[in-house]
Amino acid sequence: MTAVRVAAAGLALLLAAACTAPPPRGETGTAAGTVCAPPTGTPGKETATTIEVVEQAYFCILGNYHSGATLDARSLLAAGFTALTQELDRNGRDLPDAAMPTLTGDPKADWAAFETVYRKITRQVPDLRGKLTVATLEAIVAALDDEHASWAHDVGQPPDYYDGDGYGLGLEANVNASQADGNLDAAVPPLFVTIVRGGAAQAAGLCPGDVIESINGSAPFIDGKATPAIAALYPRYPQARPVELSLLRHSTGRRWNVTLQPGLFQRDLADLRVVRSKLLDDIAYVRVTGFLPDSADRILRAIFRLREGRTLSGVVLDLRGNSSGSTTEATRLLSAFAHGKVTAYHCTAGGTCQSLRTDDTVELLGLPLVVLTDRGCASACEHFASAVKDLRAGRLIGTRTAGMVSGPVQPYLLTDNTVLNLPAKHHLGPNREVVDRIGVPPDHYVPLTPEDAAAGRDPALAAALTLLHR
Q1: Which has the least CB within 10 A, 62, 165, 173, 235?
Q2: Is the dihedral of CA 182, 187, 190, 193 positive or negative?
Q3: In Å, how far are 248, 282, 317, 358, 396 from 297, measured between CA atoms?
């Protein structure tokens, strides 16, 4: 993905100087086919992705993405064409006609030029047409460089899948799946196992704290910078290629290699609970893995139950790894710690902003708050974290959040029954600061180390308890 974006950026600079007229449009889809709209029900069975679908997605982005009206569409087409030629190369079928057409900056004329060349290429390699089309559309969406913009296709489950099963190697590392998928610049060495969920990792005897020194023969970090090799830790169905790891266990000095086969594994039922709570002396500890519908009320009920018959010194909300959910739920939860406040702004490219405000019908808890954050805290979690920090409703402990909160997502149905997800507005924190790509810094930086993970220590939680007991 990174290579596509870099190549696209270079092509876009060259294309900006172009001023010749585009070639005549060849075979094209109908104008009506370019219209996109939110789904009105469950999409039907997916059909083949064609160039008409790519055209529909291209114009859907320009018409509905929050900065689509000001976007230089040539960057999207450059990314798509880069991916197309790379797919030809991977299949050993590069063609002399596979040269980028001249683009002028007129989105409609440029699409016509792009489609003409695309059709000329795919007529010569009809057996690759499906692969080329999918690679092109994936790259066009990736060129937005927006973690909330996505194209959902080929969504399926393994044949033996049972509700709640996991798929993959059965481990999690300090560089999480979201970072590995497109935010590696923020990753910090060393790479080490933080959790063993089951599956191949458990069968091979891996433990928290094990340092991953290489992945399929490649170093996870070079000169302190993360490499794309880390993505292999998080295969998604139907990916099934074995992954070879070289490991170091600091406690014993042992170095060894294992080969892990991706597959289904049964997850602990406790891991599937969105809200978990317990009393830590006189502090209510609540772990929240997602801001799903009704989660705010469930969290508050848990705190009230822990509070029955005793005086609490405070609340610890553990939002580490909380990567998705509803901004409405995040706002409702924040409303138990602050009233009469703006929690975020959702703004159009033109600068028109809608303020999101606390729900002052929610009863105030009147308790000190500490929030545990890490690079796995994204989207609605960052909405909550940035509001806690800006409004001084509590303190953040841990590490910086993911920087993946571009804005609320709207799905659009494409004619092949796949779904294009696009943010129609971009997110700003209560102080009107940009959080997307930057993240929310903690008030107290307390990272997890391999030694902590191996010993089962949680330094961020320990720091939170100390702070609340002062």
Answers
A1: 165
A2: negative
A3: 43, 21, 14, 14, 22
**Burial tier of 470 (Cβ tally within 10 Å: 0-12, 13-18, 19+):** exposed
Under 8 Å between Cβ of 351 and 395: no
Residue type, 49: T
Residue whose token pair is 């009920």: 301
pLDDT tens digit sequence for 371-410: 999 999 999 999 999 999 999 999 999 999 999 999 999 9
Cα dihedral value 431, 432, 438, 442, nearest 10: 10
The amino acid occupying position 348 is T
Place of tokens 């933080």: 194
Backbone angles phi, psi at 316, to 5 degrees: -110, 115
The closest of 316, 333, 322 to 281, measured between CA atoms, is 316
Element (H, E) at 369: strand 369-373
Residues 171 and 183: their CA atoms lie apart, in Å, by 19
Query: What is the 8-class DSSP label of residue 37?
Result: B
Q: How many of the other CB atoms lie within 10 Å of CB of 140?
A: 25
Q: For 305-364, what is each residue's pLDDT tens digit? A: 999 999 999 999 999 999 989 999 999 999 999 999 999 999 988 889 999 999 999 999
pTM of the model: 0.86
What distance in Å separates the CA atoms of residue 222 and residue 191, rounded to the nearest whole number? 12
What's the CA gap between 49 and 206, in Å, rounded? 41
180, 230 Cβ separation under 8 angstroms: yes
**pLDDT in the model for residue 303:** 98
335 contact partners, CB below 8 Å, separation of at least 6: 358, 359, 360, 361, 362
State the Cα–Cα distance between residues 209 and 192, nearest whole angstrom. Answer: 6
